[in-house]
Design brief:
This protein has about 160 residues and is an alpha+beta fold. The chain has one domain (about 5-160): Alpha-Beta Barrel (Multidrug-efflux Transporter 1 Regulator Bmrr, Chain A), CATH 3.20.80.10. It has two helices and eight strands, in the order E-E-H-E-E-E-E-H-E-E.
């Protein structure tokens, strides 16, 4: 189940992340293991998360691979290292949708958001024909340790719109 999509302004957001290249077959087993690594890095550097963890899709090729950043927002910019890098999610207008339900339903929720935006002639912030996005986020609002029922997980989809 998801809410009606909206357009929302988001401020620039510093974050740290680990980038992974996955396939549709490996995404479910690889990326969940990376979040603890990012949180461990934050703890080792004395940095507190400033929001919910997310996956940022940088390259989407459903047949070959997905380039995904597994990230966590932080309050102020920092520097990374060889495994964890620091970045800033861009400020601007985002098409957003809140979904409550199993993560396996996110493909359908994403399709609903894309159709909604297309029907309003909204343009995405992309850089080139390879589908690299300024920001295409899945923000995970639910902590699995606190809510084990995956059918109740809350996720926000937020895709950056062109200025």
């Amino acid at each position: 189940m998801h809410t009606e999509p909206t357009v929302a302004e988001r401020a620039a957001q510093p974050y740290v992340a680990i980038k992974e290249l996955v396939t549709m077959q490996t995404i479910g087993e690889v990326l969940p293991k990376v979040h603890p690594e990012v949180f461990g890095w934050l703890g080792a550097h004395g940095i507190a998360p400033a929001g919910a963890p997310f996956w940022k899709y940088d390259l989407i090729d459903m047949e070959r691979g997905l380039e995904v950043e597994v990230g966590v927002p932080i309050a102020a910019p920092t520097t990374g290292d060889e495994r964890v890098f620091a970045g800033v999610l861009p400020a601007g207008r985002y098409a957003t949708l809140q979904h409550t339900g199993h993560p396996s339903e996110l493909m359908a929720a994403t399709a609903a958001l894309l159709d909604w935006a297309k029907g309003r002639d909204l343009k995405w912030d992309v850089s080139g024909a390879d589908e690299r996005w300024a920001a295409r986020l899945e923000i995970y609002q639910t902590d699995p340790r606190e809510q084990p029922d995956m059918n109740k997980w809350e996720t926000i989809l937020a895709f950056k719109l062109a200025d």
